[in-house]
């Protein structure tokens, strides 16, 4: 029996239900009546509970709204996810509205990725996380049909995956100490900055460990001279790069800092999608690609190829997400200098089993698609 027939015979088919559309987490999935030989989409609101309050330079929160997506084709199911940190402007309501507008049953060949995702992209502008959820589910589905994980389909070598960093958020000294202890299995620490006590935070971490650091200012720095002084200070303390030092609109200041900084300056909030890579090339040394910004794996891969062809440094990052979207992003990890895929480790209710951190690295394995499966 070939693999596809086997999967078709064993996977649970979608059940046709006429449930009312409800947008609170924990409710039944929203589905249309499934059609055979067609792409059948269903989705369900979810809420991610964070292990620690997540404090950034500009906000703080304890939960992240999330939507889980399934894309079924001939009995095979691909899983996807949209995660919506509130500052990005999407919500459970906006994602569910977007998904309700899609007619994916018009497609009978799931391999027409360009055609399917161009259609999804054209339904409404923006809605990047909503689009990513469909893209991730489609890639998972296709990988399962082909029986291969995406890093293999893309021709990447899993042993080239760099160490993944663990995020230490802005917090009180005793909480920072506790987080550094929690981060013991990780070989790189990512420190969130952007407040007055930035140096104090680094000194606390350095009193506990000499592991390499990277710094994410999340647009929190405002003074270019102070930023340059901080870059030199951080370099002496084993920092590898600085991510998004200034507000994304402070382009002249960023270019000024990049010319003088002893550390690479990496764009995060500055860029979202493929055309933004060329804009970032003018002002930054590298880019942080996240699936929830890029509209998913298809465009993220194109961004990674473009950035590398321009000689830019590449980082693969994430939002707070389940192991579903993290496993999808991890497929690109062998292309990157730095990997920051700890979003699943920051939540208390991960509903997927996916890639694991082994000896400080996200470890890619042979499961087809993105490799993450729902925890029943
Ligand atoms: Mg960042």
Describe the protein's topology.
Blueprint: H1 3-10, E1 30-31, E2 40-55, E3 60-73, E4 76-83, H2 92-101, H3 113-123, H4 128-146, H5 150-153, E5 165-168, H6 173-182, E6 188-192, H7 198-208, E7 213-216, H8 224-236, E8 239-243, H9 251-260, E9 265-267, H10 274-283, E10 286-289, H11 291-294, H12 297-309, E11 313-316, H13 323-330, E12 338-339, E13 352-353, E14 356-358, E15 361-363, E16 373-374
Parallel strand pairs: 5-6, 6-7, 7-8, 8-9, 9-10, 10-11, 11-12
Antiparallel strand pairs: 1-2, 2-3, 3-4, 13-16, 14-15
Helix pairs in contact: 2-4, 3-4, 6-7, 8-9, 10-12
The structure holds magnesium ion.
Magnesium ion binds near residues 216, 244, 268 and 288.
Structure description:
A hairpin with a 2-residue loop joins strand 14 and strand 15. Helix content is 35%, strand content 22%. It is globular and about 60 Å long. By secondary structure, it is α/β, with parallel strands linked by helices. The strands form 4 sheets. An 8-stranded parallel beta sheet has the order 5-6-7-8-9-10-11-12. Strands 1-2-3-4 form a 4-stranded antiparallel beta sheet. It has 13 helices and 16 strands. The N terminus is likely disordered. Helix 2 crosses helix 4, helix 6 packs across helix 7 and helix 10 packs parallel to helix 12. The structure holds magnesium ion. Magnesium ion binds next to loops.
